[in-house]
Design a protein that fits this description.
The protein is built from twelve helices and 13 strands. The longest helix has 23 residues. It has two domains: 124 residues, no CATH class; 235 residues, Rossmann fold (3-Layer(aba) Sandwich), CATH 3.40.50. Strands 9-8-7-10-11-13-12 form a seven-stranded mixed beta sheet. The chain has a two-stranded antiparallel sheet with strand order 1-2. Helices cover 35% and strands 19% of the residues. The protein is of the alpha/beta class and 397 residues long.
């Protein structure tokens, strides 16, 4: 510590002498130091540094695909402040024989979540230990990197392939006459201009086989055909319909209100990724025309660009915040939270089932998400017959 000599008047001899005075640095509390770390995260973000990059997602996918391990390890990833940080990966060793295989799963934190984590970063320390008010760079890097790695069991479903395929065919027939499809087409007809598009990229449209196995409530309650588990099937038909309508219009330069003839029908390439896809799902979807990405949940972000229509049917993920950092898609189709309904609009027991099955937690929009949406024109599908809401965003330029 620094010692500063100051003149002190002697009371005994009436003389002026020099006595060292110690300058003590003020101690920070846990809350104050957490606030300081959160401010550092905010400063890095507001300086324009990217929280998410395609290179980051590429590093994750390449690392996880090439490595296998039974002991805990780590992956080195970049942070917003330009310093690499080590992200821990738990052990993939199963607790007992006969259990499904454990696989790593990237957890992507949004900006608001990182701020919250930073504010509580020192909860495990005592106030007496927090004498040094500085924040180590290693701590800064850890809280300006949005990736954490968790583990999940490999998706295995006992539902036979033919049952998934039969359900797909059944829903396909119902979809052609469904009110949801009609209202989706009406919305697309309202769009007079769509930027050039080369593909549809789908994120989190939902598992097919596993959903059939879980939804035993259907034995006693007959749900609308667009709700889970049929909703996951419908999500995929939404993507196919958008690809066909926009693809035909773009290929033949048709006006929005012109129905393509059989010879004019065309379709955009449709790419899909969902970490929960089972083998049965992938086989059925591939046969239906989907190109399935076999990554760890972040591969699809690498193929999103300015000529993409993004379809996302899982509002629990902060996908828009990621997109705000990496691309400006031509269009984004977003199936939103299930709206609140008054008792009696649908069967009470089914509504309770829906609320238990889907948490629909949505993070508060980040500044970059707000900026992203300002660059788009919004169209809405008002689904009257089902409790679904779909928003379409078209890039303005």
């Amino acid at each position: 510590m620094n010692a500063i000599s100051t003149p002190v008047q002697s009371t005994q001899f009436g003389e002026t002498s020099l006595r060292p005075t110690i300058e003590v640095r003020r101690q920070l509390t846990r809350k104050e130091k957490g606030q300081k770390l959160a401010q550092a995260v905010q400063h890095a973000y507001e300086s324009g540094n990217k929280l998410y990059t395609k290179d980051m997602f590429r590093e994750i996918e390449v690392f996880l695909a090439k490595h296998s391990w039974t002991e805990a390890t780590y992956i080195t990833l970049p942070s917003m402040i330009g310093i690499n940080t080590k992200v821990a990966i738990p052990s993939l060793e199963n607790d007992g024989p006969g259990e499904p295989q454990l696989v790593p799963f990237p957890v992507i934190y949004p900006y608001r979540k990182l701020m919250n984590l930073a504010q509580n970063a020192f909860e495990g320390e005592t106030d007496e230990e927090l004498v040094d008010p500085s924040i180590p760079e290693i701590k800064m890097a850890a809280f300006t990197c949005p990736i954490r790695i968790s583990t999940v069991f490999t998706m295995i479903s006992e539902i036979p392939h033919h049952q998934v395929e039969e359900t797909w065919s059944f829903i396909e027939e119902s979809w052609e006459q469904s009110s949801f499809r009609i209202e989706l087409l009406d919305m697309l007809n309202l769009v007079d201009r769509i930027p050039k598009v080369s593909r549809v990229v789908c994120l989190g449209l939902g598992n097919l086989a596993k959903t059939l196995a879980e939804d035993n409530i259907y034995e006693t309650v007959e749900p609308p055909s667009t709700l889970p588990g049929y909703r996951n099937y419908i999500n995929h038909f939404v993507a196919l319909t958008v690809a066909q309508v926009i693809g035909s219009r773009q290929a033949n330069r048709l006006s929005p209100d012109t129905e393509p003839t059989h010879g004019q029908q065309s379709s955009l390439k449709v790419v899909a990724e969902d970490f929960s896809y089972s083998l049965q799902d992938k086989e059925v979807l591939a046969k239906a025309g989907f190109q399935i990405l076999n990554g760890y949940g972040t591969s699809a972000f690498r193929v999103v660009d300015d000529e993409t229509i993004l379809v996302c049917c899982d509002p629990r993920r902060a996908v828009m915040e990621i997109i705000a950092d990496i691309a400006r898609p031509a269009a984004m189709l977003w199936i939103q939270d299930l709206p609140e309904v008054e008792q009696g609009d649908i069967q009470t027991e089914y509504w309770e089932f829906i609320k238990r099955k889907f948490s629909f937690k949505k993070y508060e929009d980040s500044p970059r998400t707000i900026q992203l949406l300002q660059e788009y024109t919004k169209y809405e599908v008002e689904v009257k017959a089902e409790v679904l809401r779909t928003d379409l965003y078209i890039r303005n330029t």
